[in-house]
Amino acid sequence: MPTCPGWPLAELTRHLGTVHHWAEHLVRTRATVGVPARDVPLGLPRDPAGYPAWLADGAEALVSTLRAADPDTPLWSPGPEPRAGYYPRHVLFEAVVHQADAELALAGAAETIDPGTAAEGIEHHLATLLYVPRTAERIAHLDRDGEPLRFTARDTGTVWTLTLGGGGFTQRRGSAVSAARTEPAAGVTGDSGDLLLLLHRRYTADDPRFARTGDRALLDDWLTATAL
Hints:
Layout: H1 9-29, H2 51-68, H3 86-107, H4 115-128, H5 133-140, E1 148-153, E2 158-165, E3 168-175, H6 176-179, E4 186-190, H7 192-199, E5 211-214, H8 216-225
């Protein structure tokens, strides 16, 4: 798979199914501390031919558990919301990005992602970065304090402006009209779904679907630091 080097499609299926079982276990048991996926009973088939049914069964069990849970139930999470309501979004965007991986491998192109879904995925990605130790450490060492980086959605006019500093960054979501009052150090414009896949490094900034302005080194540093 070109976007997941070293992974065959079976490994991608195993990974996504593992995420389903892991999230279902955490929500169902109301875990207040993190549980590694290796410690969760997966019931993984020995034969990869059984992976599709296993993936579907795990997804169904997860949806059932999420629907039965109060979203405000206190719960450990790997992001900014320590509650059960964090997990539907988390698992959704795992699926969206990995579906694109499969489409790129099998068809050479990813299907268009709904702009509203993509925007929520971008918000989720940005909100989680400083809670992941490896990305938080890389961002802290970017040494580009005060420099704004802007991502503009061509299809909706939504703009995300990130300002580095204080060992992290702040982000502001606005419109192209309001953002036009200030000039970023670096900027990228593309459709919402393409920006989501750029932020997850499924596309490169050199792809012709993007228009870039400003300091290319800042953009490259950001994408390298935030690789998950």
